[in-house]
Amino acid sequence: MVETLSIAVIGAPGVGKTSIIRQFLYNDFTEGYTTTNSRYAYRPSVILNGNMFDLKIMDVPPILSFPASTCQEWLDLRCHGVRTASAYILVYDICCMESFEYIKMIRQQIVDNRASSSGEAPILVVGSKRDLQRQRFTSRRAVSLLVKKTWKCGYIECSAKYNWHITLLFKELLASAVAHGLKQNHSSIRLQGALHRNRCSIM
């Protein structure tokens, strides 16, 4: 039986969420910027360490806050499925301090609201637009230490424009989500391995 994992990709306007997703799925990058106004779900299937997974990658438009309740989630069409996601990718622009403050707020709200409802879920913080690193608002080391040591989240930087670390970030997140699921099921099995991009098919 193929397991389904839902991934919510969240970030402030213009950070490159859609570009990251489309580069991963279609090996495609567009220079022009179009605002994400409504939630859109992509449904690829991937192979991780010889196991197949159906993914539901949700491109979430900018939201004022993480839905605090199921009722709030269903009242806002942009938030459908966000509370119960298997994992989260929080994207910020390494050149924009405000975009980092946004995911800082969202991460705290995820931690606060998931603890009493759907349980914890892996969170990967992604610094996008690495190709513009000379314009970054602070050092990579400073952000990485904060995210890994204080927030207890994964951290990676990428460039959708040059397809740098795009596959790696999804591989890392999926490995964490699978390992987390196994841990919740009290299994001692640990899955390790790479996501084989050339086996990834869009459905």
TrEMBL record:
The keyword Cell membrane does not apply. Transmembrane segments: none annotated. Pfam families: Ras. The gene is Rasl10b_1. The lineage of its organism: Eukaryota, Metazoa, Chordata, Craniata, Vertebrata. It comes from Polyodon spathula. InterPro entries: P-loop_NTPase, Ras-like_GTPase_Reg, Small_GTP-bd, Small_GTPase. Keywords: Nucleotide-binding. This is RSLAB protein.
